[in-house]
Amino acid sequence: MIKLGIIGAGRIGKVHAESINKYVVDAEVKSIADPFMNEEISKWAENMGIKNTYKDYKEILNDTEIDAVLVCSSTDTHSQISIEAARAGKHIFCEKPIDHDVEKIKEVLREVEKAGVKYQVGFNRRFDHNFRAIKETVQSGKIGAPHIIKVTSRDPEAPPIDYVRVSGGMFLDMTIHDFDMIRFLSGSEVEEVYAMGNVLVDPAIGEAGDIDTAIVTLKLANGALGVIDNSRQAAYGYDQRAEVFGSKGSVAVTNDTGSRAVISTQEGVAAEKPLHFFLERYMQAYAEEIKEFIAAVVNDTEVPVNALDGLKPVLIGLAAKKSIQEGRPVKISEIEM
Amino acid sequence: MIKLGIIGAGRIGKVHAESINKYVVDAEVKSIADPFMNEEISKWAENMGIKNTYKDYKEILNDTEIDAVLVCSSTDTHSQISIEAARAGKHIFCEKPIDHDVEKIKEVLREVEKAGVKYQVGFNRRFDHNFRAIKETVQSGKIGAPHIIKVTSRDPEAPPIDYVRVSGGMFLDMTIHDFDMIRFLSGSEVEEVYAMGNVLVDPAIGEAGDIDTAIVTLKLANGALGVIDNSRQAAYGYDQRAEVFGSKGSVAVTNDTGSRAVISTQEGVAAEKPLHFFLERYMQAYAEEIKEFIAAVVNDTEVPVNALDGLKPVLIGLAAKKSIQEGRPVKISEIEM
Amino acid sequence: MIKLGIIGAGRIGKVHAESINKYVVDAEVKSIADPFMNEEISKWAENMGIKNTYKDYKEILNDTEIDAVLVCSSTDTHSQISIEAARAGKHIFCEKPIDHDVEKIKEVLREVEKAGVKYQVGFNRRFDHNFRAIKETVQSGKIGAPHIIKVTSRDPEAPPIDYVRVSGGMFLDMTIHDFDMIRFLSGSEVEEVYAMGNVLVDPAIGEAGDIDTAIVTLKLANGALGVIDNSRQAAYGYDQRAEVFGSKGSVAVTNDTGSRAVISTQEGVAAEKPLHFFLERYMQAYAEEIKEFIAAVVNDTEVPVNALDGLKPVLIGLAAKKSIQEGRPVKISEIEM
Amino acid sequence: MIKLGIIGAGRIGKVHAESINKYVVDAEVKSIADPFMNEEISKWAENMGIKNTYKDYKEILNDTEIDAVLVCSSTDTHSQISIEAARAGKHIFCEKPIDHDVEKIKEVLREVEKAGVKYQVGFNRRFDHNFRAIKETVQSGKIGAPHIIKVTSRDPEAPPIDYVRVSGGMFLDMTIHDFDMIRFLSGSEVEEVYAMGNVLVDPAIGEAGDIDTAIVTLKLANGALGVIDNSRQAAYGYDQRAEVFGSKGSVAVTNDTGSRAVISTQEGVAAEKPLHFFLERYMQAYAEEIKEFIAAVVNDTEVPVNALDGLKPVLIGLAAKKSIQEGRPVKISEIEM
């Protein structure tokens, strides 16, 4: 029985605690820490069978009974806590992104390697049944060599402006998942990026120095081309589709819905909207990623999404940002240096 | 170049004239007759390049230049005109049903055989691309031996009550197409029928002695079971679907639409309603059935839907009617005697 | 915290234990009994956190700490155990069917009423997201008054012949769910049934005195017509669809699949088969029905599927059986007497 | 009755002659000219009821009875013949592109204006029922202001290498339709283009100096972003889809198929591939564009796709070409000068 500590009791920290409770048989959450720990969270923790609640995450790192930690704190603390946890000998599951600063991510990589602990990054979409079906089809060879990889990723609503300001920009906050998806589905590395963006959803986003609508084109090492279209606000809900087109055919997935009901009336033929947002759409994927992390710890095998997989999308995101700023395609090698 | 005469200048007579004009290269309509011939029809005929317009269809039968006639007059005249046309040595395309009276249909069969002319019945749905795709799949063996044949057939709106009164009842007027479809798709004969019906759309239909909603179950000679569901009024339009389920799988078709557009908004995900009614849905099928009739005449080959195919669905329709009246399953052999 | 005992540790008993473990927060399984209790089951029970394992279910009935029992034993013991459990003052969740004998079901009803305990029957499909979506659409009035209710229900493979012999026949074993679905979706009672059946899947089923393919037509109290098509074996998997057609439109559901992937190649455009069988398709529905049972116990409210809902489909099933035997439509009132 | 002359008796010239014959009531093709006129073409022309066949198109221009000409000759002759036809006072329907040379197109524009004749360019896809449905939805305001316009355009097979060499490159030969579609669907002008391309289908295409796979990103005057993905070879056939995403929702179309049949077997659930190529997919659109051209001539109204609509996509194509060559985004204004 693996004992876990969760660092950060915000939305995603709770999601992980709950899905471990429901779906993961060989692990249990022993402790949870949050600087804003309060009675409400403590009560929730008690209901979940979590023994200890702390304000200071170091209590978790100091607990020798705890095998692994889930870093679910605010983004700007990910790299620092990761380093401390590695030094404490804990296996680490860290929410994305590890950091916005490439140097800090590299430091995490070095510390993790030195400590010899497992390090998994929270690219949950890789565990979604739909994207897995694409990946498996590509790997089966049914559609031949990939030529074009397309990702559509649109949120149902823009985050609060206060969040936008500290988010690192849309590319590092939202598109980073799509950069990972391009790598995952293509099985290849991104070499060059060109991004076109605009502020079409909300002028306040522009005033905060960000964009809300974008098309990103990517050149991959295997010659394939990738393209992502993003919007911070889709009126019909969370739009998460992808397609890989190859020499022998294509594989594409559409959105999940709450039911398969189709209603035909004088007004037309109506189906349901996509599941509203990431909690609805990716609930099973969140459980699956933790399951596989625990399995890697238990069996001492490779984690499915490692620290390098955490670094690469940040590099792509920084290149996309530079591309927008300078109005030209940017090579990943320009960022890496 | 085959020369044709059309008897009956109502809606379906005009549909045939127009589709011959557009799609049939080796035939032309020389004459058209209608007891209610008037200036409007004459003008239309002139535009269509039809030389002669008559009140009396006998003028067409007496024209030795005319090779074949299309019987598009009112249902109660089909068998009489068919007999006269056969005696005049014309090949005959006759709209369904040949007659509501089995004896009269049998007389037509005898006269047609005696005269040695071609006789095709207007079961246009056999020529629809969707139902053809089912038929071809069944024949290919891909779904194995047919076990269940399902037909959904619902009109967008009920006919006028005056028409209902003389229509011979829903089974002979509307379901007759579905009885033909069951025979066509199964490749087998119907042996027994049980019908359950009700008046749910319009009480006036009940007062006129008819029903507007029905489920008909059919036992086929090859052991398969058939089922038809009918309504005189579907709010969303013309609903024409079918499925054959067999030992190795199933094949099903959905409705055609004007476009493949899907609109996603806050209200939901909306597609188009089915094409409104038979003229929209079966326009190509009407052209196709005439093309194949002409081809059978030109090449002296078998017509694709012969006089016996015209008789069988009437027998099934009469059995369904009797089943409703007597509240029990009825064998086709009870009707045939 | 409600304490539960499970009687019967076969497939469905285990499914319930596991889903209570995962999804039901305010109940726990204290004990499980099975006449064939063995080490394997005991080990599984231990893993599930179940304290007691018994051979004799009476140990559970005698345990005053236990609030409610789940009757998951073989069908022929359902009514007897239900009666004993009611007399022991336990709330009861009973798998379908309660019994094949109407008199015994009525005795259960009397004993349950006398004891004042909750009694829920395991018609799990009512809790499926797709069928719920139909029900909610019908209740919303969007499609008007129901005219036609259609249920397609086909299993991926026939049960073993030994099971077929004791199953009570396809109508009481398999179609009974569909009879319940017709009642659930229409909100009305079945008054008359006509069934047409055949042996098309496996001659051994016929030799065992049963059928494997059927069309059942039903007349409902509100005037609507119902139709069910059944097969014991669909090559492509578990086919569970339904449609309600009404005065203002229709609502229909298709099958769930493992993913929404569509693969386009030279061979065609391919999607996934339906989820294979009831465990895959209805896993969430099994959890949901138990959740609602527990909620009814905790809050002392009506159970969502009561004992009368357990009786009615058996009556319809017996009528369908009689219809096949006598080749005529059978009124439910003929069975009830 | 409008009298037409067709210049060029290749595939597209014949398509137009045949669809005028079938679908256009108020026009007839009087003459057809082709430098390679031969017996086979003459026979075909006779069958189509075309009176005159010439080698020299000037015979058509000199025929004062002819009101309008269809320029269906090889691309390099479009602008020259257009100019001569304008000077001869003929209304002109010209296949795309008018020319690859911007100056020559501008000369055509001047001559057409001077002569006061109608000039329509053959962007047939604007007349396709699916793309029209998108356009109408955008215009209806249902999806709000357009933010992202996506076009997927993939051919079933690459053209012969000899053709590739003289085609002007994929952007001017194939993508030009997609550039027009972006303008049509967005109702806005393209201001800047970035193109990423590769040779993934056939190395011979690369040796001929062209690419076969591309992603093109476009910045529009109204702030919206456009994106096109192209391949010269899709194993599953002609892939022609589009989507407009806006502030209130999105509208998207999928491909047409020969039938709506879905076959479910042990292997999976299979639907038909898209209609094979442009002749199958756009047959009705070809008829529609000519109908509207004739209507504009008859009623002296604006043509639906004018000479300027012929110029703009060429400018975008040249910008895309330059973008590939120079590895940077290119403004349309750089090309126009």
From TrEMBL, chains A, B, C, D:
The keyword Hydrolase does not apply. The keyword Oxidoreductase applies. Residues 2-123 form the Gfo/Idh/MocA-like oxidoreductase N-terminal domain. The gene is iolG. NCBIfam families: myo_inos_iolG. Residues 131-251 form the GFO/IDH/MocA-like oxidoreductase domain. Its EC number is 1.1.1.18. Belongs to the Gfo/Idh/MocA family. SUPFAM superfamilies: Glyceraldehyde-3-phosphate dehydrogenase-like, C-terminal domain, NAD(P)-binding Rossmann-fold domains. One of its GO terms (molecular function) is inositol 2-dehydrogenase (NAD+) activity. Keywords: Oxidoreductase. This is Inositol 2-dehydrogenase. InterPro entries: Gfo/Idh/MocA-like_OxRdtase_N, GFO_IDH_MocA-like_dom, Myo_inos_IolG, NAD(P)-bd_dom_sf. It comes from Clostridium ganghwense. Coiled coil: none annotated. Signal peptide: none annotated.
